[in-house]
Structure formats: structure tokens, C-alpha cells
Write a structure and sequence with these properties.
Archaeosine Trna-guanine Transglycosylase, Chain: A, domain 4; alpha/beta; 18% strand; Carbamate kinase; globular; 37% helix; 8-stranded mixed beta sheet
């Protein structure tokens, strides 16, 4: 269980049923209550990222609930109408608490492609550094079936992994996960905590799968999202968005909803990501000083790069080779091979003058590196 008192990076996922309070309409009084809690956490020193559903519901409401086919173009149209309306509401409500919001729209491609993954992560990190609350949604207006994430439960887990979140809170219209369907079984009991590394089969069966006219998923998607996030080192709580001050109580350590303990540390989750997927696209030979710095936990700077081998793009995985030709690390390149060849051996402050731009002072940040 998370300890109270330290700064935490928190992803809050609001489902459509939570935003509408179970009605066909967005519920501003209910939404402002959740915004109040998130703003309170922000002013306590925590970092907040909001993953919000509701764009289609907002569009459907704005168009007076038209009868439409269920194909993707109709859903994209509703999202295109509803997304700006939803963001305007968030801008207004967070503004009541002197907070600025930013819209971040993602697709599966953004989170599967190394370069886009890195760009997305850096953008959200920059927003958090500036005290802005990112509001994340799937980019429904342009997605096709091949690149759709499918639901914002899954998106929230991927975002939690993307930014190395301490806590993911998935708010819904139920108190949490039950041992069976509480609507059909009066003996169903709330599952307080899931600690097993593998979620038991009976819990998957109990979650079932439901889809309503407002949202796109049910408890089974939330269970899948929780399993994904906890395997990246994030603690997860599925809870009732209607419970008074649920976010404030959770951050204090109160036992609410269904809590999932992380399977690995967040660092181990990032290591797994870097080492997984495609093979390393290139190699960077570093000098002895850089090799020593890396082993002590430092980032790789251009001044320490002696040679660039192979072709790779920004965000690709590369091997780091010491002067004895031994691979000592692997990480995500912050610059392409072409650009690295121009700045290798140079001081970081010279990057912008040489390239005309800069993505940062480092070639590989220590958070994006695995020491082997």
C-alpha cells in the first residue's frame, strides 16, 4: 500500500458513467467535485494526469441524441463534436482552482512506436514540469480499427506506464470488483486487494464483460488495464467515483475499492520495456569516462560518445559499447544516428548551435537506460 506524505505521480481515469453520473448527460456538478479533489491533490504537491472518456457522450448530447449506426465513422463524428466541448468544460472547472489543462490525444501507434512513445512521454513530462494538468484521450477522430486502443481503461494503463506513475485510479460507477456479479448474486463480496502475480481465473470470470450505450467497456476491461499497469510497476485502484472524497482518501491510504499491488517496481517495468520489442538498431561507442559515469547512474552526454555505428532514429533502442568493445548498457536514443554523428564529442550546450534545435542535453537519459 502506498505511504502517505511523499509526492506521487497519479493517473486518474474517469469513465463515461462517472462523468454522466449514470444519466445520458454530462453532469457538471459531479465533474466539478472530481476536479476539486484532483486540484486539492495538485496543491498538496502531487502530479496529476487525467485520462478522460466522455467525448462521444458529449457529442451525442450536443447533437440531441441522434440515431446513428455503430460503425467507427459515426463514433469519430461524435468524438469530433464532443471533444472540444469536454475540454472547454475541463478548462473552466480546473480554472476555478487556478489550474491550466492541456489536451493530449493519443493512438496505439503513438504508444507502440518508439519515437512517438518518447515524444509523447517528453511532452507529458514537460506539461507536468510546468504545473499543467494533461487531459488525455484517444484520438478517436482519426483512428482506424488497426490503431485503435479500444477503450480508455487500456489507455490509462498505457499512460501510467508511459510516465512511470505511482498510482492509477480507475473510477467507475461500482465500488470495485466483486467475487461475482452483484446484480445477480446477493452473496457477492467486494474484492479488497489483489496481491497474486497472476490474476486468478475466477476473478476474470467474475468481471465478465459489459458494454452500454455510453461507454465502451466494462469491468473486464478495467481488470485487464489494472493487470497491465501493475506489471509496469504501478499500484492500481478501481473504485466508485461517487464516493465522497475518494481520491483524497485513497492518497491517505484508506482502503477503498479494489487495490492491485504492483508485480514489479516501476524501474523494472521500464527496463522490461527497453529490453523488449525490436532488437537494438545501432551502437554507441563511449569513452572510458562516460562508461564510468553510466555505471554510477549517470546519463550519456554527447561529449562521451566516441563513435556512432548503424542507422537508427530518435526513440530507437541502441547498445552502448565501452572502449573494450563490451556492451555495458542499452537505452532509448534521444537523437537519431545522423544527428548524433554531428554532435558526438561535443559539450551539451553546443547541441542547439550545431543542429539548430535540441531535444535535451543527453544522448540517453538514465531513466531510459538499462545497465547490463
Amino acid at each position: 500500500m502506498m505511504t502517505a506524505g511523499r509526492t506521487k505521480r497519479i493517473v486518474v481515469k474517469l469513465g463515461t458513467s462517472t462523468l454522466t453520473a449514470g444519466t445520458p448527460y454530462l453532469s457538471p456538478p459531479h465533474i466539478v467535485e472530481l476536479v476539486r479533489q484532483m486540484s486539492n491533490l495538485y496543491h498538496q504537491g502531487h502530479e496529476i494526469v487525467l485520462v478522460s472518456s466522455g467525448a462521444m457522450a458529449a457529442g451525442r448530447e450536443r447533437l440531441s441524441f441522434p440515431k446513428l449506426p455503430k460503425e467507427i465513422p459515426a463514433k469519430q463524428m461524435l468524438s469530433a463534436v464532443g471533444q472540444p466541448r469536454l475540454m472547454a468544460l475541463y478548462e473552466q472547472l480546473f480554472g476555478l482552482y487556478s489550474l491550466t489543462v492541456a489536451q493530449v490525444l493519443l493512438t496505439r501507434y503513438d504508444l507502440a512506436n518508439r519515437r512517438s512513445y518518447l515524444n509523447s512521454r517528453n511532452t507529458i513530462a514537460a506539461l507536468l514540469q510546468q504545473g499543467v494538468v494533461p487531459v488525455v484521450n484517444e484520438n478517436d477522430t482519426i483512428t482506424t480499427e488497426e490503431i485503435r486502443l479500444g477503450d480508455n481503461d487500456n489507455l490509462s494503463a498505457l499512460v501510467a506506464n508511459l510516465i512511470e506513475s505511482d498510482l492509477l485510479v480507475i473510477l467507475t460507477d461500482q465500488p470495485g470488483l466483486y467475487t461475482s456479479d452483484p446484480h445477480q448474486d446477493c452473496d457477492a463480496k467486494l474484492v479488497d486487494e489483489v496481491k497474486d502475480s497472476a490474476i486468478p481465473d475466477w476473478l476474470w470470470e467474475a468481471a465478465g464483460g459489459t458494454v452500454n450505450d455510453l461507454g465502451t467497456g466494462g469491468m473486464v476491461t478495467k481488470l485487464g488495464a489494472a493487470d497491465l499497469a501493475r506489471r509496469a510497476g504501478t499500484e492500481v485502484v478501481i473504485g466508485d467515483g461517487r464516493h465522497p472524497d475518494i481520491l483524497l482518501k485513497l492518497i491517505k491510504g484508506e482502503a477503498l475499492g479494489t487495490r492491485f499491488t504492483p508485480v514489479v517496481s516501476s524501474l523494472e517495468g521500464r527496463k522490461r520495456y527497453i529490453l523488449a520489442g525490436s532488437n537494438a538498431q545501432g551502437k554507441l561507442v563511449v569513452d572510458a569516462g562516460a562508461a564510468r559515469a553510466l555505471k554510477k547512474g549517470g546519463s550519456l552526454l554527447p561529449v562521451g560518445v566516441a563513435q556512432v555505428l548503424g542507422e537508427f532514429e530518435r526513440g530507437d533502442t541502441v547498445c552502448v559499447i565501452d572502449p573494450d568493445q563490451q556492451e555495458i548498457a542499452r537505452g532509448l536514443a534521444n537523437y537519431s544516428a545522423t544527428h548524433l554523428a554531428q554532435i558526438q564529442g561535443q559539450q551539451s550546450e553546443a547541441i542547439e548551435a550545431i543542429l539548430g534545435f535540441a531535444y535535451g542535453d543527453w544522448v540517453i537519459h538514465h531513466n531510459d537506460m538499462v545497465i547490463l
